[in-house]
Write a structure and sequence with these properties.
hpI Integrase, Chain A, three-stranded mixed beta sheet, 16 helices, 11% strand, globular, DNA recombination, Integrase-like_cat_sf, DNA integration
């Protein structure tokens, strides 16, 4: 019988023995978060647990989903299943058995309904690298009398080959690779989110299906997630970690604060992202109305919802995970009838492209260049460094491909810059008026007279901004009498 249940789970607030003091009792150490790892039969897999415990001091570990440590556990699950099903101990793996694991076990996978394997070659390569790292650790800690993996001259049980690889600084370094790892896939480029798909997603997010307080909350949550994806260009995991205590007054601050992923630190650093007033207003309203209503109802039903995180599950009020957020986004894509490629990260690509385009436009105003090749690399890095401070990229050079994307964006939209700004004005005002419309049913928060007055004032302000855009004032001295 094939066991496909998950072999690991996150455990918080653990007390483990640290060392033995001969004069007193065993000294313990408190660990905030670790991963328990089991064999498919449910018994503890001690070698992998020890490896993950040591790895937890090197990678990011999060209490609600395990962070980067969860990826290591997921990769090692494949090796644990293979060894269990074939009655092989980790330290007894050799060239033949590991080749069988790499080629047949990892290659034998389900095909999705779209005709693609559930894991790409790049994912399988990452699994193999993680397994090799675990075996290297095993031979230096628990089985020091064996050479389980290594280069040919060491006569290892599993032979690796040496390869030269260039680092980011173009320096060469020698690495060890498994010779039977699958060939890397050529990644399909993900461009910015097209406006047509973006509009369809918003139509679905705004579609009224408010029958219960949970459905009201889910609709408001989807609106906020789309709004913040557009306004900040953040990663899904960063939205999942968004905390109320780190965003106490968005309107007053004129910004949101998010934890930055992929920095390989024990604690994800906090970054400030300026956003428009309309985004701040709708976010505060979501926190004070729909989210507050959900928490009150869940507490009434006997649940203990989480009070810290901005986005919660509707059934128990727990912090929503990035995978759950992605699944909900996929449901929106299907409901919208979108057949083209659409994922949350494309909003990030859209945001970065527009940010680079705005800085590039300022650069072009004082430099006479006709192609991106004429822009000095130092000027490109200078532009991208300013963008990276907002997007959370640790290396601005990784954004270099966006120079060409931004150039194309400017080329396509330069003749209609005014129209693009007009659309932006309409979107901002529409978001604010939607918020007022929702408040119409909540007389405790705002009277209907005040709602009408606010709507009229917003429309008048919008009219003034549009007239200024269409017919800008002439420069020069005022000659009117």
């Amino acid at each position: 019988m094939k066991n496909n249940h998950q072999l690991f789970r996150v455990i918080n607030d653990v007390e483990l023995p640290s060392h033995l003091n001969p004069h007193t009792k065993t000294i313990t150490k408190d660990i905030k978060t670790l991963l328990a790892f089991l064999w498919p039969d449910g018994s503890p897999c001690v070698p992998i647990e020890l490896f993950l415990l040591e790895k937890s001091y090197e990678v990011t570990v999060r209490s609600y989903d395990g962070g980067s440590l969860k990826v290591w556990a997921s990769h090692l699950s494949h090796l644990a299943r293979y060894c269990f099903n074939n009655s092989i101990q980790f330290q007894d793996l050799d060239d033949n058995s590991f080749k069988n694991f790499a080629i047949y076990h990892l290659g034998n996978q389900e095909i999705s309904k779209f005709g693609f394997p559930s894991r790409s070659n790049n994912t399988n390569r990452a699994v193999i690298r993680s397994c090799i790292s675990f075996l290297q650790w095993l031979q230096t800690t628990l089985f020091i009398d064996r050479v389980i993996v290594g280069s040919r001259e060491l006569s290892p049980q599993i032979r690796l080959i040496k390869k030269e690889k260039r680092g980011r600084g173009l320096e060469k370094k020698t690495i060890l690779e498994y010779p039977y790892a699958p060939s890397p896939d050529t990644p399909e480029p993900k461009g910015p989110m097209p406006g047509t798909i973006r509009n369809k997603l918003w139509d679905i997010a705004l579609e009224s299906r408010n029958h219960t307080f949970r459905e009201c909350y889910l609709q408001a949550r989807r609106e906020q997630i789309l709004s913040l994806l557009e306004a900040t260009g953040c990663r899904p995991g960063e939205l999942a970690m968004m905390a109320i205590d780190e965003n106490p007054q968005p309107v007053k601050m004129g910004a949101v604060f998010l934890r930055t992923e992929k920095r390989r630190r024990k604690i994800d650093p906090l970054r400030r992202i300026p956003v428009s007033l309309e985004v701040c207003i709708t976010l505060e309203r979501y926190l004070m109305v729909e989210r507050a209503d959900l928490i009150a109802e869940l507490k009434f039903d006997g649940h203990t919802p989480n009070d810290r995180y901005v986005f919660l599950t509707a059934d128990k009020g727990l912090p929503i995970s990035p995978s759950a957020m992605n699944k909900d986004f996929t449901r929106m894509v299907k409901r919208a009838g979108i057949t083209q490629r659409a994922c949350m990260s494309m909003f990030r690509h859209r945001f970065i492209t527009i940010q680079v385009a705005l800085h590039l436009q300022d650069y072009l105003a004082s430099h006479n260049v006709t192609t991106t090749n004429q822009i000095l690399i130092l000027d490109k890095i200078s532009i991208l460094t300013r963008v990276a401070a907002i997007t959370g990229h640790s290396n601005p050079e990784s954004l270099l491909p966006y120079i060409d994307l931004a150039w194309e964006y400017l080329g396509a939209f330069r003749p209609i810059d005014g129209a693009r700004e007009l659309v932006s004005l309409l979107n901002e005002s529409a978001g604010y008026i939607r918020t007022l419309g929702k408040a119409a049913g909540k007389t405790a928060h705002m009277t209907k007279t005040a709602i009408v007055e606010s709507t009229v004032n917003e429309l008048r302000a919008l009219e003034r901004r549009i007239r200024k855009l269409i017919d800008p004032p002439k420069c020069g001295p005022d000659t009117s009498t």
